[in-house]
Amino acid sequence: MSIFEYNGAAVVAMAGKNCVAIGSDLRLGVQFQTLACDYKKVYPIHDHLYLGLAGLGTDTQTLFQKFKFHHNIYRLKEERDIKPSTFAQFVSSTLYSKRFGPWFVSPVIAGLEPGTWTPYLCGMDSLGAIETAPDFMVAGTAPDSLYGMCESMHKPDLEPEELFEVLSQCLLAGTDRDAISGWGAIVHVITKDQVITRTLKGRMD
Fold first, then answer.
1. Is pLDDT above 80 for 12?
2. Model pTM?
3. Distance of alpha carbon 15 from its chain centroid, rounded?
4. Helix 57-78, helix 84-96: angle, nearest 10
5. Buried-most residue among 92, 96, 118, 201 (CB within 10 A)?
6. What is the phi-psi region of residue 145: left when phi exceeds 0, alpha when psi lies from -120 to 50, beta otherwise?
7. Torsion (CA) 195, 126, 173, 162 in degrees, nearest 10
8. Is the dihedral of CA 63, 66, 70, 76 positive or negative?
9. CATH code of the domain made up of 3-200
10. Banded model confidence at residue 186, pLDDT cuts 50, 70, 90
11. d(C-alpha 50, C-alpha 40), whole Å
């Protein structure tokens, strides 16, 4: 089993009309042994930017604290929140700086660019190679089934409620086909004015 599959994870981000959504499953396990059903893998950087981290649980916690610290320093210096595209470059350079002993994580970044409020989605590997997407991005241990669900269900210019419904169905259906992720999910829908967070019940067998 790959070290990326040691704890299990499923993260999905999806773009809508001036909104973006990101969600993850809630399972924490050691291979096929489930330890907890309330382990969130999506972290807030600020109100218009969220970071999903799939991979080894210890590395995800360490990296989130590191990124949050650096964003706080950025906010103190610049007196504004960091843009999602700028934050993606910072995450990429941080991961690449440890390329000879990498963190075992697969980040997914979802946010709204200030001013235009256009969605920004990107993902990267453990070395920081960025891949942007106009529609959706997935990471974790169930990428094949998640990609299949997202490709079949996503439509452009979804409203926030429609976006929540589509992402939720994709996430729940995708994790049903993966033994080391699932057991419930949490979804954040980010709009210009608010962040809507909902917890989903999933199969627990």
1. yes
2. 0.92
3. 12
4. 130
5. 92
6. alpha
7. 30
8. positive
9. 3.60.20.10
10. very high
11. 12
